[in-house]
Structures are given as structure tokens and as C-alpha cells.
Design brief:
By secondary structure, the protein is α+β, with helices and mostly antiparallel strands. It folds into 3 domains: about 1-75, Glutaredoxin (3-Layer(aba) Sandwich); about 75-200, Up-down Bundle (Glutathione S-transferase Yfyf (Class Pi), Chain A, domain 2); about 255-405, Translation elongation factor EF1B, gamma chain, conserved domain (Alpha-Beta Plaits). Helices cover about 45% and strands about 15% of the residues. The protein has helices at about 15-25, 35-45, 60-70, 75-85, 85-115, 125-145, 155-170, 175-180, 185-195, 225-230, 235-245, 260-270, 275-285, 305-320, 355, 375-385; strands at about 5, 30, 50-55, 55-60, 290-295, 325-335, 340-350, 365-370, 390-395, 395-400, 400-405. The protein has a 5-stranded antiparallel β-sheet with strand order 8-5-7-6-11, with helices on both faces. The protein has a 4-stranded mixed β-sheet with strand order 2-1-3-4, covered by helices on one side. Strand 6 and strand 7 (about 340-350) form a beta hairpin. Helix 5 packs parallel to helix 7. The chain is elongated, with a radius of gyration of 27 Å. The N and C termini lie far apart (about 65 Å). It holds the Pfam family EF1G. Keywords: Elongation factor, Protein biosynthesis. This is Elongation factor 1-gamma 1. It comes from Candida glabrata (strain ATCC 2001 / BCRC 20586 / JCM 3761 / NBRC 0622 / NRRL Y-65 / CBS 138) (Yeast).
């Protein structure tokens, strides 16, 4: 006789309980609530999955169901590994489960629901959610940079649950560039999803190349325009050349510059910065074609760990990808944990910083001050920001550079 029934569907919260039932070979039926609609509604009027119905026992909430299923196992070693062998490990399992099952999945859903059309698209809401997602995943990247697993030295329930939650990010948000910037998370995710417990859940999984695009809105042509058109079939052909002439980026209208940006980027990447690259830059730099800007984060008092500040910069640069062929620069993180800031120097095509930066949703979190390369102090600031070999002076106090990112 069956020990009960688990109602589960395609939601990521149902992946782990379903995987545990299969792995532990528990005598529990896995039911699709859509196919057992009447029974499901009778047992669970709220219709929330996953849901477990046993003999005279009902249970909701994924964390509780996972805990219950693991304890049905007769393998004490497995139970200790999954739930934690010590009080400290048990607390860490709950900690990571809770973070993924609440903050992470909610912020990811806030970002991808509008992108896939589940709710009306609002760019400001999506952009704000993406910033919060990056702040949360930076905690995972830091932990997994130094450890193989989240809660202990072994695979635990925390890894299974967090892996399942991250799946939605990899389905809709985390493209190639994001994955390149978060190697520890990607390594861990690939490891966990290939384990005997989880591999059945990922047999059809594929990574995306880039984040899902916002839905396109089509405007209807006014009826008057339709009446005026003598030959409607010819109108699209007449409009086509105008669409082709429209520049893809506002800075494209400035045309080709005499200063070859790609050549400078190669020089910076391949040569010693102070003795070779910077002298070459100042020799070839054309201030009429490119402007230099001091870029500083507005909310340094809110920054905590230096690695999180650096991840914040990485996310900002990632969202500037549409403008990178018109820009170059560095932002550094100076100071120490719970007392740090972000500042740097960026060169952009043209004399206005806005067209280059406003492609990033969080660009207004930074302040921009135009630099004058004829002033020795401004020139030296650029040198220091691009060389990273001298402390940053803040209010007369020297702050060592802890980390940084290059935009190129």
C-alpha cells in the first residue's frame, strides 16, 4: 500500500521532493495536480505545490516536505549528509534553503515573469529585480569560490534545493556572459545536477545563450493612413530603407574615429600598463573624439563586503554590454570589508556620458564628473585608475585597492 501521494508539476520547488522519492525508492505516488484536479482540490483547497498527502497526514511547503521525505529513509548516514551532521551544519542547510526558496526565487521571478509574458512588462521593475538578483547570487559565488558545497563539505539538501531554484535563472536570465562571470556557481550547478539524486530532473536541460528579450509591443497603424495609401503592398518596401538607415546605437551616428579603440584595448591587455600602455594612450588619444569621466558609486555607505562590491561592478559592466564598443575604463573597489567604495575612470565616445551609460538600468546609481586631460591631476587620476598600482585618496586618506573590473 502506498505511503502517500506527492502533488508535483513543473515548478522548481517540486524538483527536489520528486527526486528524493525516486532516489530513495519510496512507495509514494507522484501525481500531476492538473490530471488529478478534483482530488487535489479536495486534499489541498489552496492548490499550492508541492503538497504531500499521507494516511491521516497532510503537508505543504517544499522545505517541510523535503525534511519529511529524507527522514523516511532508513540510511542514517544519508540523513546526516542531507540534513547536517552537526547543529552548525543543520543551521547552514536551513540558511541556504531559505535564502534560495524566498529571496532568490522571488527576485528572479520578478525579473523573468515580465520577460516571458506572465505579467505586464515594466522595464524599471525588471531592472531593479536584476540588480537584487545579482546582490543575492554574489553570496553564492563567494561561498562556492572557496568551497565545493554550500552548507558542509558534502552534498546536502541545501545544494539540491538551491540548484533547483537556480534552474529558473539559467532558463531565462543567466546567459553566456553571466556564466563566464560566475564560474563557481556554474561549476557547482553542473556538479549537483549531474548527481544520482538530481540527474533525472535535468535530462532535457540546456543553457541559454543570452537573457530572454523583453516582449515586443506592436503599434497599430491609424485607419487614416490606411485610407491614404493607394498601393498598400508597396508601403513596406518604401519604409524598409528608412529602417536600415536608423543607427543601432546613438553613438554610431558620430562615425568612425581616428583613435582606434580596439587597438588601445589590445595594447592595454598585452603590454605593461605604466611603462608602455599609458604612454601609448596619451600619445594617440584624441579629446575631440572621446571624453574621460570620473565614475563613482553614490551609495558607498551601503556597501559591505569588498567581494560583493566587486560583483556589483561586474553586474554594472555586464549591463553596459550594448555600449562597450564605444567605451573603455576601470572601476576599482577601495578599502576593506564594511568600509569600502567604488570609483574609476571611463572613456566614452563623444562629449556626453549619457548615451553610453544609460543602456544599463542601474547607471543612475553612479555619479559622473568630466575630466580635463590637460590638467595634470585629472590625467594622473586616469593613470592611477587604469594602472591599479597606487592607493585611492578619499578625503585626504589613502585607501588600498581591494579589487576591480575592466570594461573593454
Amino acid at each position: 500500500m502506498s505511503q502517500g501521494a506527492l502533488y508535483a508539476n513543473a515548478r522548481v520547488r517540486t524538483m527536489v521532493p520528486r527526486a528524493l522519492i525516486r532516489h530513495l525508492k519510496l512507495d509514494i505516488d507522484i501525481l500531476d495536480p492538473a490530471q488529478e484536479e478534483e482530488r487535489f482540490a479536495r486534499d489541498f483547497p489552496w492548490k499550492k505545490v508541492p503538497a504531500f498527502a499521507g494516511k491521516n497526514f497532510k503537508l505543504t511547503e517544499a522545505m517541510a516536505i523535503n525534511y519529511y521525505l529524507i527522514n523516511l529513509s532508513s540510511d542514517e548516514k544519508f540523513k546526516q549528509q542531507m540534513l547536517g551532521a552537526t547543529l552548525e551544519e543543520q543551521a547552514q542547510v536551513i540558511r541556504w534553503e531559505s535564502l534560495a526558496n524566498s529571496d532568490l526565487i522571488m527576485q528572479m521571478a520578478e525579473a523573468f515573469f515580465p520577460l516571458i509574458g506572465n505579467v505586464p512588462y515594466n522595464k524599471r521593475v525588471v531592472d531593479a529585480a536584476l540588480v537584487k538578483v545579482e546582490q543575492i547570487v554574489s553570496l553564492f559565488e563567494e561561498r562556492l569560490t572557496h568551497y565545493t558545497f554550500l552548507a558542509s563539505e558534502n552534498l546536502s539538501l541545501a545544494d539540491l534545493v538551491c540548484c533547483a531554484i537556480f534552474t529558473r535563472g539559467f532558463d531565462y536570465l543567466f546567459g553566456k556572459q553571466w556564466r563566464a562571470e560566475h564560474p563557481a556557481i556554474v561549476r557547482w550547478f553542473n556538479h549537483v545536477r549531474s548527481t544520482d539524486i538530481m540527474k533525472e530532473e535535468y535530462k532535457d536541460f540546456k543553457f541559454i545563450d543570452k537573457q530572454v528579450e523583453p516582449p515586443k509591443t506592436e503599434s497599430k497603424k491609424p485607419k487614416k493612413a490606411e485610407k491614404k495609401a493607394d498601393k498598400p503592398a508597396e508601403k513596406p518596401a518604401a519604409e524598409a530603407p528608412q529602417q536600415e538607415k536608423k543607427p543601432k546605437h546613438p553613438l554610431e551616428a558620430l562615425g568612425r574615429s581616428t583613435f582606434v579603440l580596439d587597438e588601445w584595448k589590445r595594447k592595454y591587455s598585452n603590454e605593461d600598463t605604466r611603462p608602455v600602455a599609458l604612454p601609448w594612450f596619451w600619445e594617440h588619444y584624441n579629446p575631440e573624439e572621446y571624453s574621460l569621466w570620473k565614475v563613482g558609486y553614490k551609495y558607498n555607505d551601503e556597501l559591505t563586503m569588498t567581494f560583493m562590491s566587486n560583483n556589483l561592478v561586474g553586474g554594472f559592466f555586464n549591463r553596459l554590454s550594448a555600449s562597450t564598443k564605444y567605451m573603455f575604463g576601470c572601476l576599482v573597489v577601495y578599502g576593506e570589508n564594511n568600509n569600502n567604495g567604488i570609483v574609476g575612470a571611463v572613456m566614452v565616445r563623444g562629449q556626453d556620458h549619457v548615451p553610453a551609460f544609460d543602456v544599463a538600468p542601474d547607471w543612475e546609481s553612479y555619479e559622473y564628473t568630466k575630466l580635463d586631460p590637460t590638467k595634470e591631476e585629472d590625467k594622473e587620476f586616469v593613470n592611477n585608475m587604469w594602472a591599479w598600482d597606487k592607493p585611492v585618496v578619499v578625503n585626504g586618506e589613502s585607501k588600498e585597492i581591494a579589487d576591480g573590473k575592466v570594461l573593454k
